[in-house]
Amino acid sequence: MSKREQEAAEYLEKHKIIDLVDNLTSMVFFYRPDRPQEFLIDQLEKLKESKVSQEYSPCLFNESNLDALFGILDPCHQGYITHAQYKEALKTLGVKNFNEFPDGAGEERISQETFRREA
């Protein structure tokens, strides 16, 4: 790899460009908007707003998707999942930076609310 290629790779990694493009591409395939360019612009604007307000961040999964996943992990409706289930679910969702030890991790009882908040 040339020095220029190495610098480009470091830049992309530093600014998480590949992750951003992967997420946006997945969203386009998932939602299949009629106007993909406008959809992408809207998602980038929402992302920019979320950086300022630290609230909503555009993502592929919404709360109902997270609730459905939690339900699959908790088929007996106990109201909690194990720490291992929590970590594996977030990795499966593609969440790279998450709280490794959220509320309830020590007791192996991670609630749906905690799972949703962390995801």
TrEMBL record:
Family annotation (Gene3D superfamilies): cAMP-dependent protein kinase regulatory subunit, dimerization-anchoring domain
Ranges where the EF-hand domain occurs: 61-96
Gene Ontology terms, MF aspect: calcium ion binding
Lineage: superkingdom: Eukaryota
PROSITE patterns named in the record: EF_HAND_2
Name of the protein in its database record: EF-hand calcium-binding domain-containing protein 10
Annotated organism of origin: Triplophysa tibetana
